[in-house]
Amino acid sequence: MESVAIEREIGAEPQRRGRAIVLTSGKGGVGKTTTTANLGTALAERGARVVLVDADVGLRNLDIVLGLESRVKYHVLDVLEERVDLDEALVPDKHSENLRLLAAAQSREKDEVQTAQMEALIAMLRERFDFVLIDCPAGIELGFRNAIAGADEAIVLCTPEVSAVRDVDRVVGLLGNRFKPQLIVNRLRPQLVKRGKMLSIDDVNGILRLPLLGVIADEPEIIITTNRGEPLALRKENPTGAAYHAIAAKIAGEDVPVPMPPAAKQTLLERLTSLFGGGRS
Amino acid sequence: MSGRRIVVTSGKGGVGKTTTTANLGATLAKRGRRVVLIDADIGLRNLDLVLGLEKRIVFDLVEVAEGRCQLRQALIKDKRFESLAILPAAQTREKDAITPEQFAAIVEEASAHADYVLIDSPAGIEAGFRNAVAGAAEAIVVTTPEVSSIRDADRVVGKIAAGGKPIRLIVNRLRPEMVSSGEMLSVEDVCDVLAIELLGIVPEDEDVIDTTNRGEPIALREAGRLSAIYDKIARRLEGELVPFTTFDRQGLFNRLMGALKAG
């Protein structure tokens, strides 16, 4: 840390600061951790240097989703309390060379982290990485406030459910104007939307009115890859894997279309109806 | 005699605490029990939405705690059952607007006139969780069959067990077809890790999202699959010995394929 500070004072090399983006949602279980792992993987695969920070002290999971749980030796609090160097605590990813994880402490409490410490940590990481993605805990308590402290951008995750939309709306209000929040609609099931049993993207963003970064379909493959610790973004041939790469490209500033899941296919019944009942509609 | 005070919690968010609280509460009320549901998720309340009572909120939990109204003034009676009421959380306040002692006092008061007080805990293990647990004498831990959810549940079980409260488990959103193909942990796997009494197994059902959005708990559907399951859970909670539903490990498609191959 000191050497970095000295370098900056001398001004030998103007430091390029990385971007610190917090992924948040208010409601839990909408996919913050999964999205953090997948976007981190996709950004790293593009060649960016990426660090993922698990801010969920006491309930960490980002290590599991990345398949790194047995490689975690130190955590955020070890760094903040200066027991180890930052370099020592960063866990290299198994799959992506440019990706690192900074795990949360599992047996500690959120109020053991001070907001100013988190700010300092994120600032330090921004000196070394192009992207610092912060996986925020659910809720809007201290863990949330610490997670957003060092960030200057936010990605909010929302599922097409009334309760999730209400929670996100509240979080956007709490974030205020500093974070330029962008929206990812997660776990959309086009088939259910078509049958009027799920809110559509327009329903969701009609209320939230945020810049749309992408839409991710709900698919069982996510559960499987999460349990296995292999983010789907490692498989570009998978449509959802490809969607994460498209979102990563947008984050990196490329002008690409907003990724959308393919429209709902006609069900067998609908196809039969349109074939045989076409004249009667 | 005062009623049972049970917190519904999970550690991880989005596993179905609120949906479980609403459905179990509605099922108990349908069975004629007097039930009060308390939303402990101050700032991110949702129990009112799931029950379709959001437009009828006048007072909330924090106002009761601050003595600005009586508990009975803040309780919203459900439209469908006389014996079901909810105490909504405050939406524009913080979790520390109420202390665990205040919370426990409200739960105590509610239990004086109810058979069951179910407390819908917020996600996480911060102040909101500590409040929700403070007033409860028992706990129901909800988990999905996912590694991350089980890890969080284990952490929560540890925290509650330290207080000596009995803890029961609901495994939520099980997809039997994924279990049989080895892509999802089984109920046995989950129970092995958590080692607490199993109260119920609820399969994933795509209609839950829709009924939740509409504010009609799925357990209220006549002759619905989940209605029967929540009824069993309610009966187990009341001490009945009810056998667990075994989910067909072979889907229809696999059975057809098996039959074709055998032929």
CATH class of chain A: Alpha Beta
What's the CATH class of chain B, please?
A: Alpha Beta
- What structural category arises from helix and sheet content of chain B? alpha/beta
Identify low-pLDDT runs of chain A: 1-13
**Overall average pLDDT of chain A:** 91
Number of domains of chain B: 1
Proportion of beta-strand residues of chain B: 15-25%
Task: Provide structural commentary.
The complex is a heterodimer of chains A (281) and B (263). Chain A has 281 residues and is α/β, with parallel strands linked by helices. Chain A has 13 helices and eight strands. Chain A has helices at residues 2-10, 32-45, 62-65, 76-80, 86-89, 115-128, 142-149, 162-175, 190-194, 201-208, 220-228, 239-251, 268-276, and strands at 19-24, 50-54, 91-92, 99-102, 131-135, 153-158, 182-188, 212-217. An eight-stranded mixed beta sheet of chain A has the order 3-4-2-5-1-6-7-8, sandwiched between helices. Chain A is globular, with a radius of gyration of 20 Å. Residues 1-13 of chain A have low confidence and may be disordered. Chain B is α/β, with parallel strands linked by helices and 263 residues long. Chain B has one domain: P-loop containing nucleotide triphosphate hydrolases (Rossmann fold). In chain B, strands 3-4-2-5-1-6-7-8 form an eight-stranded mixed beta sheet, with helices on both faces. In chain B, a hairpin with a 6-residue loop joins strand 3 and strand 4. The N and C termini of chain B lie far apart (63 Å). The interface between A and B is large, with 40 and 39 residues.
